[in-house]
Amino acid sequence: MRTVHLLDYVAGNVRSLVNAIEKCGYTVEWIRTPDEVSKAEKLILPGVGHFGHCLSQLASAGYLPAIRAHIDAGKPFMGICVGLQALFEGSVEDSAALGLCLIKGALDRFDDSQKAVPHIGWNSANTSGKSLYDLRSDSKYYYVHSYKYPYKKGELEGQGWTVATGSYGGEIFVGAVAKDNVLATQFHPEKSGIAGLRVIKAFLTGEGARTLGRDVAGPAPTGGLTRRIIACLDVRTNDQGDLVVTKGDQYDVREKTSNRGVRNLGKPVELAKKYYEQGADEITFLNITSFRDCPLADVPMLEILRRTSETVFVPLTIGGGIRDTVDTDGTKVTALEIATMYFKSGADKVSIGSDAVLAAEEYYAMNRRLFGNTAIEQISKAYGNQAVVISVDPKRVYVPKVDATRHNTIQTAFPGPRGENYCWYACTIKGGRETRDLDVVELVQAVEAMGAGEILLNCIDRDGTNSGFDLELIDQVKSAIKIPVIASSGAGNPGHFEEVFAKTRTDAALGAGIFHRGEYTVKQVKDYLAEKGLEVRKFEEYI
Fold this sequence. Notes:
The chain is of the alpha/beta class. 27% of the residues lie in helices and 24% in strands.
């Protein structure tokens, strides 16, 4: 039986990696003690999150000498994301943590003065014409990281490494390295579609090591970071108790007919696979049903994630219910524990909505002091800020002049019902049903301080209207923070996606009803963007 061994430590979503390995025809066995490392022929070190947290976990459990012995013995080793970073001597993310020192040098942080950090999305891995585990110049790979090793031509090559590079906002960084029996990728191959599965297969079969460093011919490298297109599935139970994908009209998910049934647009797992095969760069599930009478371990969304991750090899986000709670048997369960269940079931990110608003209100009430007790802080500390998305549900409040409110206002090109030329965006909770005295700028700045890594920016006013994204809202939020923003609500045709990328600095754009109703496919949107000269990831069908 063809087997590969994975280290078992807190490393975020490893289910997707297991599924990717099995997709390539191999089985997985877990390494749970340092003594078991010696029995592994092929060893993979997965990793997401904090450099210091990863290295301290490995060091305290006694894994570091065993990993080094495995590498020194010439056995195949693969490190992913933080697994690549661990090969270096250290990182400014935690200057006290010592890496494996297999590669000389320390990592630094991306410059966020002119671009969003973390670097999240699909980017290139340019091998400069050398063979490196079936990396291809016209493929894209999924990166999510704030820290990187800056590429200096000839430096790592002088140490015997074959190197692939990426470029983000003018900074060239190491995207992958390989030497002898070692392969390490900054990107996540298990989340990089068919392009990533090819890399994993090349490692498992040994073909990548056999052909490493050979000259290869191919098309010229494509550009850098692509424009991300995300498909969003609002999931809830209908009146018959079945889980369905639905879509609201300004957050109302019931039909306008006399029976007022829940709008049913399909089954979650099947639709997610469909959008993946159309080229969606990410899939987001927003659970808008509360399973109050269901034991947490049996929450239906866990099964949806497990089944989806078996066939969908792009990032999965899950939102809904990520909060401290009490299970049906009376056991207290923290938001971190719930997030961990979702990560183990196949999620790469968790999305927090109403509880983020309440946490922000407390943050300002305490004079912007942090105590480490919010769900955002706990999850980002354990899994990295890239694992925490904040879903924001704002709506316009019109005012006649700037000083009519204490809130952050904009001058709008779309006057209010009484001709007001100014507005601010009020945050809401409970699915838009309750408005709070907190504006969108206050919210996003608070959650950024808590450790959130990305903002999913909805807009109640545009939801279900097919009239395009609220560009003024997006501009205001992008100007207020440095973390990435996903534009959501209002997309009715491919031109709306082109418009939001052309007229704002949004990092990604999300569609829901436009795809569910079959008006346009993800592929049609991306083909349209490509025709307009925007960089997009093409879907690859075969390994």
